[in-house]
Amino acid sequence: MARFIIRGGKKIGGIFRPLGNKNAVLPMLAACVLTDEPLVLDNVPDILDVENMLKLLADLGVAVSRKGHSVELCARGLKKTTLDRELCTKVRGAILMAGPLPARHGQTVLFGPGGDVIGRRRLDTHFEGLDQLGIGMAWKGDAFHLHRRRGFRGADILLDEASVTATENILMAATLAPGRTVIANAACEPHVQDLGALLNKMGARISGLGTNRIEVDGVERLGGARHRVGPDYIEIGSFLAAAVATGGALTVTELPDVPTLKVMQRAFSRLGVRWEIAGGKLKLPARQVLRVRPDMGGAIPKMEDGIWPAIPSDLLSVALVLATQTRGEILFFEKLFESRMYFVDRLLEMGATLVQCDPHRVVVSGPVKLRAQLLTSPDIRAGMALIIAALCAKGTSTIEQAEMVDRGYERIESRLRALGADIQREE
């Protein structure tokens, strides 16, 4: 088990270039099995989830070549459709094979996917949508057996929840389903849009991306393509929070699109954070005066997550830590996952002033001077939040289970050191 050793009190600042969106990369990797032609992805982060997804694909017979942040895949030599049991438990992206493999190759067997332990993450929406396309599922032992039925074709599908990965699975399968597919109540997050852009480059006929109604006209075959993965706005938000919490100035290059920036700004401005965008760069000034913006009448405001374009759940953890350094009180309301907020116990140990009302709601009052502690990272985003807390705490903190953070952030310690952090990794 690796650990981070962090001595707090150093300002985080400088120039930051984000890498590709982890949540966009994983379905794009899965999309390679939809064609026999080469698929090249650029700006792919070197993170543990991507590494395990590539191992899973290679085990199926996909030719995988990686050079720097570019990955080339070719599924022409696919030799099997049963996924490796152990690799499935290491990456939640394994579930993203449920749509493309049977759509293109007739069948697949996969096992319960891994991922963050942040509460129940139901799969019903995936299989109900695929079933309407003509991809049946049988649960045998601990495995999902999926097969393409003779009546595989487009359908009008109303998702019972706007699940991102279910939308992606159904979208990939629908590209090869004869006729028209309409996905209503579809997820419209930036990474869903980016996947759709890749599929259209491969020859798919998809419209409505960015809305909750996606239409797909099935095609006989898809071809190869080259695509640059869009920047990870969660990574951007994490580094912005680290800079603000420690009083540093940060310049972010290679920005995401304007709507994505507006969603981020809505969350951070509630805590008094301000930045400027000019010349394709986001410039965050140093020594910001952080103050919670109350609701009308002086009422305590709330920051709540939700489906896009609401504040993403993945940003809530780092925003909560930033609130400990902000004057005023604010309620955080996590509505998507049962266990996302459990990490706040670690912040209490560091001296944070907060009250956990229930598994979903936490009231934070700041600012407070955090103190160093021995901590454990429970999941990707909580791990990053604890790193930010340690960066602005007094003393030296140790964060165990560094591998959790490695799943979503590339070389986090060296990239933070380049921005002024005193952080080391111990194996």
Helical proportion, percent range: 25-40%
Query: Mean of the pLDDT scores?
Result: 94
CATH superfamily of the largest domain: Enolpyruvate transferase domain
Indicate how many domains the architecture comprises. 2
The global form is globular
Q: Count the DSSP helices.
A: 14
User: What percent strand?
Assistant: 15-25%
Spatially, the strands of the biggest sheet line up as 21-22-1-23
Q: Name the assembly state.
A: single chain
Using the coordinates above, name the CATH class of the largest domain. Alpha Beta
How many beta-strand runs?
23
Main sheet record: 4 strands, mixed
The residue ranges in which pLDDT falls below 50 over 5 or more consecutive positions are: 115-120
Which second-level CATH architecture of the largest domain applies?
A: Alpha-beta prism
